[in-house]
């Protein structure tokens, strides 16, 4: 008899609408893993106590989301390579008694990208320069993309991200100020919406792109998980592009987090099915 489950979970605020718990627990159950994932509401001033609690209770690790991705770093014992470059952690992993911060946001994105196209040697246009864009930009560059154009509304964040990518990764990067419909340059292989445009409930919001510049050789990826079939996904598909929805990134970061914690490879299809049940396919 063993009534002691292995513990993992998530620290965020607010957290009631975070679907990760449903997705991860679906995988644990499907694979017969005696593991639990607890969704915890943690206020910024309580983050240190929450991490100490996780250590005291021997948690195998935890995800952290808004607003803890940067603040958690001072409570951890070290950082993985991409988390160090990105400057943010969304997944802490217990290794040899130490809590190490990883960033699975961008790794999950690259994994879902690889289902359609290998980013190595590719030219990428990415809209956005927030937390998701930083993670996606760094991991896509580390996966071998040669050039990344960061297109962002606010110049400060966009310039900072383009400089980070140029200085800290092997890719070249440039910033373009987003002002009106952006014409995607010929020769672009991958187009990424890493902004929050299109997220529920603003489902009709339009990502300002000159859709006539999209060509069928391009892969268009959206980070928005809810709804999965965003306006951008639907309109890019109508242009003949290969499309990737935001569920792919969410599922794959879950797969990577579970691998870090349990050392088990879980079936992404089970996790995607659970999210489709929640958000619609
Ligand atoms: P941030 O708030 O850090 O960044 C938001 C970005 O969107 C900024 O670049 C901002 O530009 C841009 N933006 C927002 N509204 C507009 C607009 N109307 N016009 C132009 N640009 C706009 O958010 P995150 O990076 O953390 O998250 C972005 C999205 O990614 C969220 O919707 C989130 O749901 C999704 N996400 C999905 C994940 C997945 O697994 N599928 C994982 C993580 C995030 P500016 O700098 O000018 O403000």
Automatic annotation (TrEMBL):
Keywords in alphabetical order: Amino-acid biosynthesis, Aromatic amino acid biosynthesis, NADP, Oxidoreductase
Residues reported to bind shikimate: 65, 90, 105, 253
GO biological process: amino acid biosynthetic process; aromatic amino acid family biosynthetic process; chorismate biosynthetic process; shikimate metabolic process
Active site: 69
Pathway it works in: Metabolic intermediate biosynthesis; chorismate biosynthesis; chorismate from D-erythrose 4-phosphate and phosphoenolpyruvate: step 4/7
Catalytic reaction list: shikimate + NADP(+) = 3-dehydroshikimate + NADPH + H(+)
EC numbers, comma separated: 1.1.1.25
A molecular function (GO) term: NADP binding
Gene3D superfamilies reported for this sequence: Leucine Dehydrogenase, chain A, domain 1, NAD(P)-binding Rossmann-like Domain
Residues the record lists as binding NADP(+): 81, 128-132, 223, 246
Oxidoreductase keyword on record: yes
Highest taxon in the source lineage: Bacteria
Assigned protein family: Belongs to the shikimate dehydrogenase family.
HAMAP family (alphabetical): Shikimate_DH_AroE (MF_00222)
NCBIfam families: aroE (TIGR00507)
Functional note: Involved in the biosynthesis of the chorismate, which leads to the biosynthesis of aromatic amino acids. Catalyzes the reversible NADPH linked reduction of 3-dehydroshikimate (DHSA) to yield shikimate (SA).
Full protein name: Shikimate dehydrogenase (NADP(+))
């Amino acid at each position: 008899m063993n009534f002691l489950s292995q513990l993992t979970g998530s620290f965020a605020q607010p957290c009631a609408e975070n679907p990760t718990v449903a997705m991860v627990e679906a995988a644990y159950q499907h694979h017969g893993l005696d593991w639990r994932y607890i969704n915890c509401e943690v206020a910024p001033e309580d983050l240190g106590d929450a991490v100490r609690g996780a250590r005291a209770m021997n948690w195998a690790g935890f995800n952290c989301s808004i607003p803890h991705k940067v603040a958690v770093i001072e409570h951890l014992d070290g950082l993985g390579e991409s988390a160090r470059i990105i400057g943010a952690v969304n997944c802490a992993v217990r290794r040899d008694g130490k809590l190490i911060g990883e960033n699975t946001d961008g790794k999950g994105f690259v994994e879902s990208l690889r289902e359609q196209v290998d980013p190595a040697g590719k030219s990428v246009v990415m809209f956005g320069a927030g937390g998701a864009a930083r993670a996606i930009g760094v991991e896509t560059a580390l996966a071998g993309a040669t050039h990344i154009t960061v297109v962002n509304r606010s110049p400060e964040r966009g310039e900072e991200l383009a400089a980070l990518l140029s200085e800290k990764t092997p890719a070249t990067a440039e910033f373009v100020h987003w002002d009106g419909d952006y014409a995607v340059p010929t020769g672009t292989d991958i187009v990424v919406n890493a902004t929050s445009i299109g997220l529920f409930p603003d489902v009709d919001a339009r990502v300002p792109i000159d859709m006539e510049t999209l060509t069928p050789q391009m892969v268009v990826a959206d980070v928005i998980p809810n709804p999965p079939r965003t306006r951008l996904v639907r309109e890019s598909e109508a242009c003949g592009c290969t499309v990737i929805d935001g569920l792919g990134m969410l599922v794959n970061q879950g797969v990577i987090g579970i691998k870090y914690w349990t050392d088990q490879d879980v079936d992404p299809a089970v996790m995607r099915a659970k999210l489709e049940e929640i958000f619609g396919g």
